[in-house]
Amino acid sequence: xxxxxxxxxxxxxxxxxxxxxMAADDAKKKSKKGKRPVAGQRxxxxxxxxxxxxxxxxxxxxKIAEIKKAYSSKLSAAFTKFSGSLSAEQKKxxxxxxxxxxxxxxxxxxxxxxxAAALKLxxxxxxxQKAIGTLRKEIRGKVLAVLTAEQKEKAGIKSRGAKKKGAKxxxxxxxxxx
Length: 178
What we know:
Strand content: under 5%
Structural class: mainly alpha
Oligomer: single chain
Distance between the termini: 104 Å
Shape: extended
Number of strands: 0
Helix content: over 70%
Order of helices and strands: HHHHHHHH
Radius of gyration: 26 Å
């Protein structure tokens, strides 16, 4: 009888000690989920990232960090200007269009077109959006310039010269067809 009561007492104490620890783990998991970056921040991070599957050297990481330091404030200001210019109605229609595109399985350019059509941007908003695109393209070019030829090949990035050769061939074919 004593042995049973002693065992039950020890199990009860262990349970009392384990319960707060399990609750703390749940709280940590919930706090991590709630700290997702906002859309603009995700786009900022994506602009400065290397292509998937590419391992960067310490020197390359330092160069990309310099690029990020130089451009992050400009890009952040451009995002803030654009999102600040959207009305509440436009933000709601953008969210609805995104949700509808996601449910229908639309991705990439089709998704962007559907969202842009739902937004009904003004000329000023379109100019702001174009400025963001130009800035992102400039950043992307600088990030890709940091990569070696092998890294670019592994990521499937073609050099600009390869595109020009293809354009010349297409131009020759068009001339010959006439």
